[in-house]
């Protein structure tokens, strides 16, 4: 993926642009991501927070992460599309959902996480590294 990276919600009320390359990307199979996407996983990538510009209004939903820290998910209040997320466990980074990209084909996953929660009907890429939960994050 090369910057700038652009995307937005279904109705067009919220748009974003990112001027940095992703620092990590993958598929999360945790139950919370399954609920957020309405599917088997969330495909997403992380970028430095200061590289993202959002136009339009976002609604926030905060909840406790498995680590005990807090996670914040942002979505369009009009069409409900999940766009970004953040976590106290990854300060300074913003997670962007790949399905919200203007060109989702540019997304390149690098891992599968929370594979212990993966659904049996979701067939994972055997070439990607697998983690049963959240892997250790670089400082």
Describe this structure in words.
The strands form 2 sheets. Strands 6-7-8-9-4-3-10 form a 7-stranded mixed β-sheet. Strands 1-2-5 form a 3-stranded antiparallel β-sheet, with no helix packed on it. The protein has one helix at residues 31-37; strands spanning 5-8, 15-18, 24-28, 42-48, 52-55, 59-64, 70-75, 82-87, 93-97, 112-113. 5% of the residues lie in helices and 35% in strands. The chain has one domain (5-117): glutathione-dependent formaldehyde- activating enzyme (gfa) (Alpha-Beta Complex), CATH 3.90.1590.10. The two termini are 22 Å apart. A hairpin with a 6-residue loop joins strand 1 (5-8) and strand 2. The protein is mostly beta strands and 139 residues long.
């Amino acid at each position: 993926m090369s910057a700038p990276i652009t995307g937005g919600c279904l109705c067009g009320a919220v748009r974003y642009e990112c001027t940095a390359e992703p620092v990590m990307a993958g598929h999360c199979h945790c139950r919370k991501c399954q609920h957020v996407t309405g599917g088997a996983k969330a495909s997403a990538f992380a970028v430095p927070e200061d590289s993202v510009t959002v136009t339009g209004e976002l609604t926030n939903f905060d909840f406790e992460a498995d680590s005990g820290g807090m996670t914040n998910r942002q979505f369009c209040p009009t069409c409900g599309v999940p766009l970004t997320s953040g976590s106290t466990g990854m300060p300074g980074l913003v997670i962007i959902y790949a399905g919200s990209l203007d060109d989702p084909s540019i997304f390149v996953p690098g891992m599968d996480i929370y594979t212990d929660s993966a659904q049996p009907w979701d067939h994972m890429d055997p070439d990607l590294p697998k983690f049963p939960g959240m892997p250790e994050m670089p400082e």
